[in-house]
Amino acid sequence: MELTSLTAAEIAAAVKNKKVSAREVVDAHLARAEKHNPVIGAFLHIDAAEARATADAVDARISRKEPVGALAGVPVALKDNLALPGQPLTCSSKILKNFKPPFTAHVVEQLQKADAVFLGKTNLDEFAMGSSTENSAMQLTRNPWNTDCVPGGSSGGSAAAVAAGFAPLALGSDTGGSIRQPASLCGCVGMKPSYGLVSRYGLVAFGSSLDQIGPFARSVEDAALIMNAISGPDRRDSTCRNTPAPDFTANLNQGVKGLKIGLPKEYFETSGLNAEVKAAVLAAVDALKKEGAELVEVSLSMLDYAVPTYYIVATAEASSNLARYDGAHYGHRAEGTDNIIDLFSKTREEGFGSEVKRRIMLGTYVLSAGYYDAYYLRALKVRTRIAQDFAQAFGKADLIASPVAPETAFRFGEKTADPISMYLSDIYTISTNLAAVPAVSVPCGVDSQGMPIGLQLTAPRFGDDLMLRAAAAYEQVSGLRNRVAPLQGN
Amino acid sequence: MSHITREEVTKIAHLSRIKLSEEETDLFAKQLEDILGYVAKLGEVDVEGVEPFLNAAADGNVFREDVVIESLPRDAALANAPERKDAFFKVPAVQ
């Protein structure tokens, strides 16, 4: 049994039935990560001792016949913008280099209750700002399917860890596509839950009206399993819905018969959409039709305005959220300053990378006196129209199918000089965050170079369970499930 | 379309409390101008009578009982301080 190619569901079952110990599972994943991470660069930090201790504790409870959680012994990787005491929390930024989180993220607590095992923290674009993980101040992350290519971003480390078989599950955060786009580029399942389904307590804030935490997995069932663990009310995030979450695994095999799936015509007419990606997504939609879904055309006519709206709303919120990194309370502090303004300005000059500075400045500009109405207020109104667009489309369709990203994984450096070209890799994912609805990326094929392509399914708000059901039905017919990248020198 | 001068970049950088090098000032003037030119597209959208999207919370305000609950202990909150004195964060003079 190759332990690193099992799904989370298989691992949890095998551990509970004593077919294998949690310790053996963790050791196998640590060995694979320790061997290949120097090339892939998915993990920033691996805490092997802590992972082994947790696994041993799970095994001890099983041998005493005590009950264990739904993810018993399952290795999980965490994006390094989630707080886990005892491990660093850098957001891949120099400004948080030696920060030690004094509190535990809600999702981390929930996974601890489920008896999951944390392997370590994964790389990201600094403060989750980017689409290739090239904005990390720490290291490059390589796409496990072709190490000359980016893994996508900003949760590139989590996507690469799952695709490379370092862990069957990982958590990321998605503000404009930061889970779905890297999942698509790395060939795994990646889900952005409805806004308000998962507490963000302990997630470092970027764009608070957009941020959601969500999973990476190699099967839809695994994504549903971890969603069961992390979803639900939490008084520490006031945007979190006060209603218990459903069992996301309950209806996974109910199929798509009779479901109406909307195809937004604008999404398939975009000039930047790669022909192979388009063909793969349309073939996937066709497969859903063969399973009994009804296809309907819908219109999401605000598509072209999503990226500009996002870059006003998200940067405005970021400029406020990132004001806390000032060198006074924690993290990096510049030396040799003699007044507080100088301390702030020099600390932030030294601590932040280019993209973060660019976004803070853009956000400051659109919120500043004289520009607020023209930029920020207008963007909020366009955001309402984008949300209305979705509401109208969901009047005709139960789910919407589209590409995740306009192209497959690109090469390092290809888009770093031109911020707008990088921003456009999120053209299909950003609207979802603006409209607060859920979406999932599921693998739907590869291009002629063997690079993964993703299908995006979007549901009405809190229709996350229906969305996963359709994703599972597609996965069943496509057979594109649990694909682990064959790394060099296995 | 907005033209962004070096002086404006310097002003925004000051408001953002970020010191910029000469090269960064030039680069950001160009890039911010490009980005603002791109987002100016939003001017095409008819937003007459449209309410701004102000709150994404599903339940509106979520209230809890007004009872005292434990918060982060002072020493834990101060543990990451670059410099501290007694129960305070220590910083250079506030002018």
Helix/strand layout:
The complex is a heterodimer of chains A (490) and B (95).
Chain A (H helix, E strand, L loop, with lengths): L7 H9 L5 H19 L2 E4 L1 H16 L11 E5 L26 H8 L3 E6 L33 H8 L5 E6 L5 H7 L2 E4 L19 E6 L2 H11 L29 E5 H4 L6 H16 L3 E5 L4 H19 L18 H12 L2 H14 L4 H25 L2 E5 L15 H5 L6 H6 L3 E8 L5 E7 L5 H15 L12
Parallel strand pairs in A: 2-3, 2-4, 7-8, 7-9
Antiparallel strand pairs in A: 1-3, 4-6, 5-6, 5-10, 9-11, 10-11
Helix pairs in contact in A: 2-3, 5-6, 7-16, 10-12, 10-13
Chain B lengths: L5 H10 L6 H18 L34 H5 L5 E2 L2 E2 L6
Antiparallel strand pairs in B: 1-2
Helix pairs in contact in B: 1-2
What's the short version?
Chain A is an alpha/beta fold and 490 residues long. Chain A has helices at 8-16, 22-40, 48-63, 106-113, 156-163, 180-186, 220-230, 265-268, 275-290, 303-321, 340-351, 354-367, 372-396, 419-423, 430-435, 464-478, and strands spanning 43-46, 75-79, 117-122, 169-174, 189-192, 212-217, 260-264, 294-298, 399-403, 439-446, 452-458.
CATH architecture grouping of the domain at 6-43 in chain B: Orthogonal Bundle
Sum up the overall morphology of chain A in one term. Answer: globular
Strands of chain B, total number: 2
Per CATH, which architecture of the domain at 3-254 and 474-478 in chain A? Alpha-Beta Complex
Number of strands of chain A: 11
Strand arrangement within the widest β-sheet of chain A reads 1-3-2-4-6-5-10-11-9-7-8
Percent of residues in beta strands of chain B: under 5%
Using only CA atoms, what is the Rg of chain B? 22 Å
Mean model confidence by pLDDT of chain B? 91
Report the order of strands and helices of chain A: HHEHEHEHEHEEHEHHEHHHHEHHEEH
Regarding CATH, which class of the domain at 3-254 and 474-478 in chain A? Alpha Beta
Mean pLDDT across every amino acid position of chain A: 96
